[in-house]
Design brief:
Length: about 375
């Protein structure tokens, strides 16, 4: 019986091609931790954890993720059977509280390893894909109407995007809403618009801004209120009729139950790095769909490795009516795959003919980035 023999990590710091400004601050680089699991037969699986520049969007740091994997999870995982990925996944949140990114990276590496050993793609290990192509939204985050429109036009021409997400937080709420109006008017009939507030508004601000966003014809509004404000979110969604996408309010399957009970969101963003792993995200998607909550495939600006992992997961979701935003490799200044994932005609296509995650890593590039990152 094959067992986990070793666990190693590599830190990679990669600058973004263009900084992204959110209500929590500006992100200019991505911190990545590669986690490699090797079994007693020499097979290897690779996963990745991500922290966008520091503990601003979430609570984790890349230094903390590395410590959790190396000091706390590795001693418990070495010697475990590689056929027990489901059981180990259920144990991970008992072994370490929180630390979703660390758990996600370890589980991703285990699924990749099992896929290589079995000859199956990760999507099959997660229950089987129900779609092979997923539409992708492109984020507009310069903070200027003119430059956002110009970027949107370039993205639409080059890759066929028909959905854009606007990041709020550059300006005062009224200025952000005015920008949304102008961009929605410009792309009317060609692209739908989602705005993302990243918890940046209180309830009173939302009451003032929501009528204007409804007038702009937005497709949805992502996480306008703090994550804990479920009752207020439910009331504002009911009152104004604009679809809310929960993001920071989600941290795995149990949180989806709370959202459904509170009727606090019409949709939610899936994110394995935030949820604690691909299996947790798959389970969250099943619960949400059963509750009539629509699904949106979120991104934490993954490399091609993490993007492929998310694509395998999102392809199994019962619903993905809002598409995804898996554009991470296009936002990063460098990638770690020999053939980066590509967006064609506004869609990503699942490649499920290869085992595991199906990604060939550029080991020379990884060694260079690891040496530079320390």
């Amino acid at each position: 019986m094959s067992r986990i023999d070793s666990i190693t990590t590599q830190r990679l710091d990669i600058a973004l091609r263009q900084p992204i400004t959110m209500s929590t601050g500006t992100v200019s680089r991505q911190n990545i931790l590669l986690v490699r699991l090797r079994d007693t037969d020499g097979a290897e699986g690779v996963g990745e954890a991500l922290v966008m520049g520091g503990p601003y969007w979430g609570q984790e740091t890349i230094e903390g993720v590395r410590a959790v994997v190396e000091r706390h999870l590795a001693p418990l995982l070495i010697g475990q059977s590689t056929s027990s990925v489901g059981a180990i996944s259920r144990q991970l949140p008992r072994w370490v509280r929180g630390n979703a990114a660390a758990r996600s990276a370890v589980e991703m590496a285990m699924l990749d390893l099992v896929g290589h050993r079995s000859g199956l793609p990760v999507s099959a290990l997660l229950g089987g894909a129900v779609r092979s192509r997923i539409p992708v939204a492109w984020t507009l985050s310069t903070g200027s109407v003119e430059t956002d429109i110009a970027e949107g036009e370039r993205a639409a021409a080059a890759h066929g995007f028909t959905r854009f997400k606007l990041k709020f937080g550059h300006e005062a709420p009224r200025a952000d809403v005015s920008r949304a109006h102008a961009i929605a008017r410009h792309f009317a009939g060609r692209a739908t618009i989602i705005a993302d507030v990243n918890q940046g508004w209180d309830e009173q601000t939302a009451i003032q801004m929501l009528p204007r966003l409804v007038d702009a014809g937005l497709e949805a509004l992502e996480q306008p209120l703090p994550a804990h404000a479920l009752a207020a979110a439910a009331e504002l969604q009911r009152r104004f009729g604009l679809r809310f996408i929960a993001d920071e309010a989600v941290d795995g399957p149990a949180s989806v139950l709370r959202l459904a009970q509170a009727k606090a969101a019409a949709a939610l963003s899936l994110k394995p790095n935030r949820d604690g792993g691909l299996i947790a995200t798959r389970d969250a998607a099943i619960i949400a769909a059963a509750a009539g909550i629509q699904l949106y495939g979120g991104s934490m600006l993954e490399t091609s490795l993490g993007t492929a992992a998310n694509l395998h997961c999102y392809a199994t979701a019962p619903d993905l009516s809002l598409g995804c935003e898996l554009f991470g490799p296009m936002r990063l200044g460098e990638d770690i795959a020999t053939t980066p994932v590509s967006i064609e005609q506004g869609h990503l296509t699942l490649e499920d003919t290869l085992p595991g995650l199906g990604v060939s890593l550029d080991e020379e590039k990884i060694a260079f980035l690891a040496a530079r990152s320390g």
